[in-house]
Amino acid sequence: MSNNVLAFIEGEEGHISEDSKSILKEGRRLADEMGGTLVGATHRGSILKDQLNNTGLDECWELPLGITDDPCGQLAGLALAELAKDIQARLILAAHTMLGESVLATAAASLGGAFFSSCREISIKDANFNIHRITCGGKVDEIRTLISSVCLGTVIPSGTGRKRFTGNKSVEYREMLTLIKGAVPEITGEFKAHPDEIDLTEAEFIVAIGGGVGDRKGYEMAARFASLIGATLGGSRIAVDRGFLPNSRLIGLTGHEVAPKIYIGIGISGAPHHLNGIRDAKVIIGINKDPNAPLLKAADIAVVGDAYTILPALIEELGGEL
C-alpha cells in the first residue's frame, strides 16, 4: 500500500466548492508528509477542468456519472472505492457535507476501511493517523489513533473566508469510463426540505436568537424573518432556557457546533461557548445594540442596533407582514 491521498471534490457551478478547497489544502499537506501524491475525484461535469489547476492536485479523475445521476453519492462512493484500490490510496478525504458523508460511507463499506465523520484535523505520527473529532454534540473532544491500511474521513473546514490557491501546476486529468458496480438510479421527483426540518449541523443559513430577543413578540419576529430568507432558526442558551426554542436548537459547545454559509446572530452577546459553536461559519453577521458585544467583534458584518427596530424593517423590506 502506497501513501497516496484521494480527495472527493464537490463543485458549485463549475467551480470547486469552498469546503472542497479546504479539503485539497489539507490533502496536499498530508500527501507531502506521507511522501505520496494527491489525487482528486469528482462527479462528471461538476467542475471545469481549468479550475483544477494550481490546487495542489497531482491528478484528477472524473467519475463516469453526473451529480444528477447520483444525487445521494452512493454510486460515486463505489467508484471512489475502485479508484482508491487502483491508486493504492491510504487516506481518503471529503468535505463534511451530506454528499461527502454519503460518498465516503459507501466507499468505506466497499473497501472495509475505517471511516471517521466530522473530523477537526487528521495528523500523522509514527506512520499512524491521529484523528481529532468533536463528538456528542460538542461535549467530547477526542483524538483517536488509527493503525490501519485505509483511513477515510470527512473534515470540517477550519476558519472563515474564501480559500486561495497559488502556484502554476497543471493537473493531469483522466476519465473513468465505466462503473464496475451499481446501476444509475432514476429520479422520480425532488422536494425542498422546510428550514424547520433541517438539522442545525446541516443548515446552510441560520438565524440565531439570544437574550436581546427577550419576549414572545421578539421571537415571533425573528422566526418570521428566518422564514422569509429560508433560514433555520437556532439560539443561545438563554433563548432555550426561556422556552422559545427546544434544546435541539441550541448552538454552542453545550449544544450544536454549526458550519453554515451564513450565520445571523440577533441579540446574542457572544459568550465563548457560543462563539466556539459558530467558528466554522463562512460568514457571520451580528445584530446587537451593544457595540462592544463579543459577537460583533467576531462578525464579518456587525450591525449595531435594537433587534426590535431592525427586524420589522427587514421583514417589511422582504415583503412580509408582522
Automatic annotation (TrEMBL):
<comment type="similarity">
    <text>Belongs to the ETF alpha-subunit/FixB family.</text>
</comment>
<feature type="binding site">
    <location>
        <begin position="236"/>
        <end position="237"/>
    </location>
    <ligand>
        <name>FAD</name>
    </ligand>
</feature>
<dbReference type="InterPro" id="IPR029035">
    <property type="entry name" value="DHS-like_NAD/FAD-binding_dom"/>
</dbReference>
<feature type="domain" description="Electron transfer flavoprotein alpha/beta-subunit N-terminal">
    <location>
        <begin position="5"/>
        <end position="158"/>
    </location>
</feature>
<dbReference type="GO" id="GO:0033539">
    <property type="term" value="P:fatty acid beta-oxidation using acyl-CoA dehydrogenase"/>
</dbReference>
<dbReference type="InterPro" id="IPR014730">
    <property type="entry name" value="ETF_a/b_N"/>
</dbReference>
<feature type="binding site">
    <location>
        <begin position="267"/>
        <end position="274"/>
    </location>
    <ligand>
        <name>FAD</name>
    </ligand>
</feature>
<protein>
    <submittedName>
        <fullName>Acryloyl-CoA reductase electron transfer subunit beta</fullName>
    </submittedName>
</protein>
<dbReference type="Pfam" id="PF00766">
    <property type="entry name" value="ETF_alpha"/>
</dbReference>
<dbReference type="InterPro" id="IPR001308">
    <property type="entry name" value="ETF_a/FixB"/>
</dbReference>
<feature type="binding site">
    <location>
        <position position="288"/>
    </location>
    <ligand>
        <name>FAD</name>
    </ligand>
</feature>
<dbReference type="InterPro" id="IPR014731">
    <property type="entry name" value="ETF_asu_C"/>
</dbReference>
<keyword id="KW-0274">FAD</keyword>
<keyword id="KW-0285">Flavoprotein</keyword>
<dbReference type="GO" id="GO:0009055">
    <property type="term" value="F:electron transfer activity"/>
</dbReference>
<dbReference type="Pfam" id="PF01012">
    <property type="entry name" value="ETF"/>
</dbReference>
<feature type="domain" description="Electron transfer flavoprotein alpha subunit C-terminal">
    <location>
        <begin position="199"/>
        <end position="279"/>
    </location>
</feature>
<dbReference type="GO" id="GO:0050660">
    <property type="term" value="F:flavin adenine dinucleotide binding"/>
</dbReference>
<dbReference type="InterPro" id="IPR014729">
    <property type="entry name" value="Rossmann-like_a/b/a_fold"/>
</dbReference>
